[in-house]
Specification:
alpha/beta, two-stranded parallel ribbon, NAD(P)-bd_dom, NAD(P)-bd_dom_sf
Amino acid sequence: MQVFLTGASGYIGSSVLRALVAHGHRVTALVRSDEKAQAVRDAGGSAVVGDVTDTDVVRRLVHDADAVVHTASAESVDPGFTATVLEAFSGSARPFVHTGGIFTFGDSTDISEKSPVSPPALTAWRAPVEATVRASDVRTTIVAPGIVHGRGAGIPAMFVGDGEHEVRLVGDGSQRWTTVHVDDLAELYVLAVHRGEQDGYVVAASGANPTVREIAEAGAHGSPVVAESVDASRERLGTDFADALLLHQEASGAHARAAFGWRPSRPSLLEDLADGSYVR
């Protein structure tokens, strides 16, 4: 299958690129520089240097694709990009896999695809875009990842200590985060392409929902772990980002397992922080 991929040089997208190539797909990625294009080619894909907001380039690449996977999701990108894909794919059986996010569901101890939507200010922009995607006649799947970890990167890297300087929690650290390894997440994107159905949402969650304090303690490596007030977290991280990280979220990822046959197998976030890719 010929797959058009955005965000191939990013954290999630680079893993999706590797997974698509490993499953035998031909991948064309739209990237912003020759350096990033070379990285795509080194991973087994083809690259076009351009901008994801360039409608003419996007329209041409979408026209030539059997499927589109969009991981370069951003407020400035998604309205125009999704409109171009939905117009091109309307009336066809070609799948479009879009990227959402777990923050969309707000505070919840049991997030599922049927949970009400209650996004924080940081990601409120996603709602109208996703509503348009879901209302189309295109075979769309919106993958909503939990807190993504693995390969020493992502949000959890903020809790990696050096044994000397303090590791600060977000608030008191009692909130839980639902998590997913970046390489397990990539396999779910591939399964969504293969499934090719109009699925709406699929929550990408490993089923591990540690507290932020547990996360910080796993990554501290001897550094002191220090709680702070909500106001202090907002001042340090910015109000919108802090409020998103202060959400209490738990999910099992049951639908992804039952409907897609997804089998996450990589180390948990706590394992990864304590004795894996985050060890410096």
